Amino acid sequence: MDTRYTTPISNPFEGLPEDIDAVEHEPLFETGVQQVGIADWLKNNAHNIAFIAGNLLLAAGEYRVYDFAMQNTGEAWKAWFAVLATFFPFILWEIAVQHAKASGLMRGVAWLGMAISFSLGVIIGIAEFSAVGGQIANAEALLGLLAGSLSIHAVLFLVYFYSHPDIKAKRLTAVAVAKQEMAERNAEVAESVLGSARNRLELERRIAAEYGYENLRRAIAEIEGRHYHTPKKTYAPRKTLPHSPTPVPLNIPEMLEPAPAHAFGANGHGKPKSAARPGESAPDFS
Questions:
Q1: What span, in angstroms and rounded, lies between the C-alpha atoms of 215 and 250?
Q2: Are the C-beta atoms of 102 and 115 separated by less than 8 Å?
Q3: What pLDDT tens digit does each residue of the chain (286 aa) get?
Q4: Numbers of helices and strands, H then E, in the chain
């Protein structure tokens, strides 16, 4: 039986009536755009709106800094440098704090820079309202703070840069490689020194075996230009304690002569005799 598949010659749907409703399939990907109301859009982008509004208000407040420097110095470039010390560092630190690889130290430095810039702007804005007779008290000191803050920001930017994880990793890698190279150089020098010392010892041993150790020392001293002194054999007495105690005699009583345990008379009878005391005669029981 032949079970192979054969392609039909005619169209299998050719005899179907034309009034059959076709099945409508939904599109695989939805192409329609969902409309969002203004209120929902504002809620979804509230953080972006706050970011833009905060920077615009800060830029508007920086005009007071420019005007303060312009009135007290009379030079436009100094006024622009005053703005450079407050507004532009704030924007740069605002961007730096959002860096993806920023560490805790980097974020802390960025927040510190933002605080310095913002505080100077606020101080100058308040000082302008405290003018007496058209003159602002301590105007020179405030201008000095603006000029000095630029140096502070420069140092903080360098700290931020060198605290970056990539820069730190490169620095640590370079230090490790340098230490390894130094260790290899030290090992090479040590090998050379030890090899030279071994050759010298072998040479000195051969010379000493042929000419004697004392002659070898004398020859080396003459070559090195120093005087040779023959070692003297001296007697070193044994060291004693500085304060040796004087021996004290022990108070030991004299030994008594041992008396016999039993003393008998001539007839072989009698009682046991007691031991005589010193200076006394033993009683006679005979």
A1: 60
A2: no
A3: 556 656 656 666 566 556 555 555 555 555 556 676 788 887 788 888 888 888 888 887 778 788 888 877 788 887 888 888 888 888 888 888 888 888 888 899 999 998 998 888 888 877 767 665 666 667 778 888 888 888 898 899 999 998 888 888 888 899 999 999 999 999 999 999 999 999 888 888 888 888 888 888 888 888 877 877 776 666 556 666 555 556 656 666 665 555 555 555 555 555 555 555 555 555 555 5
A4: 8, 0
Which residues, 6+ apart, have CB-to-CB distance to 125 below 8 Å? 61, 64, 65
Structure token digits, residue 190: 């040590």
DSSP letter assigned to residue 132: B
CB-based contacts of 112, cutoff 8 Å, min separation 6: 156
Q: Computed from CA positions of residues 252, 253, 255, 260, in that sequence, does the dihedral angle turn out positive or negative?
A: negative
Cα separations (Å) of 282 from 85, 156, 267? 126, 115, 18
Threshold 0.70, pTM exceeds: no
CA distance 78 to 147: 9
Task: Identify the sign of the CA torsion 177, 180, 186, 188.
Answer: negative
Q: What is the DSSP string of 83-130?
A: HHTTHHHHHHHHHHTT-TT--HHHHHHHHHHHHHHHHHHHHHHHHHHT
- Three-state DSSP at 183 gives helix
Q: Tell me if 50 sits within 8 A of 63, measured CB to CB.
A: no
CA 24 from centroid of its chain's CA atoms? 70
Strand runs labelled E in 15-54:
none
